[in-house]
Amino acid sequence: MAAKYDFSGWATKNDLLCSDGRTIRRDAFKDCDGMVVPLVWSHIHTDPDNVLGHALLKNEPEGVRTYCTFNDTPRGRTAKALVEHGDITNLSIYANKLKQKGGDVLHGVIREVSLVLSGANPGALIDYPSLEHSDDEETEAFIYTDEGIFIAHSEDFDEEELDEPEELSHEDKEEKDENMADEAKNTNGGDKTVQEVFDSMTEEQKNVCYFMIGQALEDAGVDVDDEGEDEDMKHNVFDNDYERDDVLTHADQAEILSMAKQPGMTFQSALNTYAANNGFDADTLQHDGVSVSGFVQPGEGVTGYTVDALFPEYKDVRPGAPELITNDQGWVGTVLGKVHKSPISRIRTQQVDIRNIDALRARGYKKGNEKQLTGNFQLVRRTTDPQTVYVKSQLHRDDVVDITDFDYVQYLYNIDRMNLNEELAMAIMVGDRRSDEAEDKIFPEHIRPIWTDDELFTMHHDLDVAAMKATLQGTETGSYFGDNFVYAEALIEQLLYAREKFKGTGTPDFYMTPHMLNVMLLARDRTGHRIFSSKAELASALNVGSIVTAEQFAGLERTDDKNKKHKLLGLCVNLADYSLGATKGGEITHFTDFDIDFNLMKSLLETRCSGALTRVYSAIAIEEPVA
Fold it and tell me: Which of 127, 251, 295, 527 makes an SS bond possible with 307, Cβ 3.0 to 4.6 Å?
């Protein structure tokens, strides 16, 4: 029976020279053989969701091989798909308790295996790991190995070759750590100190050591005076008796504090006195980090370390992709979900209005008279052609590679898709607000807005607040009801009267601004009680299926054919009567391309569709005249 693992790969490879001059030697991690460690994403420890599964470690002559299994969690399944598709091909480990002799890494303990987008060292080839370290002795590191991942099949792992994962007890782990420390001590020359090792070096070896230290200081941005005498550059870094002339030691600081405690002395006067007696420049010392308060405070002209240097690093409250601040998107999904989807993009509607044609009335017959023909009627027909609507964006591939906290490509795609959906929903409900001269306008001849559609399809009614106030309050204006109640009653009355001519199918919904909804919900009677206790109760009073708020409707105005302005308050429509048509290939499609000349990843979201109401008198627009 075969043990099931999802993939395998090299956690480390032996005897490969890293770019920093260090080499991981054979059996450096032999004590980790058989250990099971977490499999995580990109070494992120702050979120338990980043634990993708576990990894079994097997020490082999070439290095440490790992056999990994994904958890059945959302992120585990996503990571598994990325590995299977070849999108992720790199592994990295985090190891601590590293021990080394010279440039050889001899021992360490692997604490985790991580999936990463790419190795930390851009110059590393596929089998070359990179060990990050500082100039001092390192006790932990991230080690990258770009040896590709091997996807597992049911017959790939044999139990005779691979034992089941072995969980080590706490005592066993401590024993392994002690053994590693003892071996490292032995390989470092017994009980010799660093000073003794340095003293045993020849003069030529010491000169090389001085050069390496100077080069490291230059790489770190520390000025090194090449014109000074050789003995300044060849100072023994292990000589504890060496002191810089312009630095206060702990003994100096203790003496200054002792002087400051004497009667009549302050810290500033003690500092000045000590500097004068010992040849120091008190001003230079203060700029280097000493002041009356102990630290230089931030401010103009301060060049030394300040108290800000003690503050911890900033950390994200919510790690990962930045949160988006958007307009209300809830109604967008409602609109696109309720419109009728048609596989036809060239829409044609035909209607004949015979409601008020007297010539079409049936006639009574009188014997002996000639029967009369019924009258003619007019056919109303309109066609709607499609238009392409798109969102185009581009990313620098350098940014995509460098941003590892979240999937930058998917993040931008989600923004583009949200923008496309919102633009389509706005075009359907109220139209594109750009001028007719704009080249990128979504024209109303292709996606016909419900609000500004012809009166045959959308009935427009103005709110008459003054008439409702007179009806409710008579001559005692303001004595009985507040303005909110008058406004709410005026809108309800206008919508219910308009419903008498409504010819749409089913039960319509009412789309309005959040402010208009609040005005109606805050309506009170003369005793102070609210008229409508909930949105559902208000929907029942309006005789609509539901109330949907859209903050994008706020402040929208239109000008009619008589050059009068009207402010939109709400649209009453059953969106099943609105047809959004797109032929095969014209539905929302995502295209991607790569520009090798400019290293750009380009994205295009595109659809080619048409839209229009397909039934007459199927929508009602409630508006308020603009003075």
Answer: 295
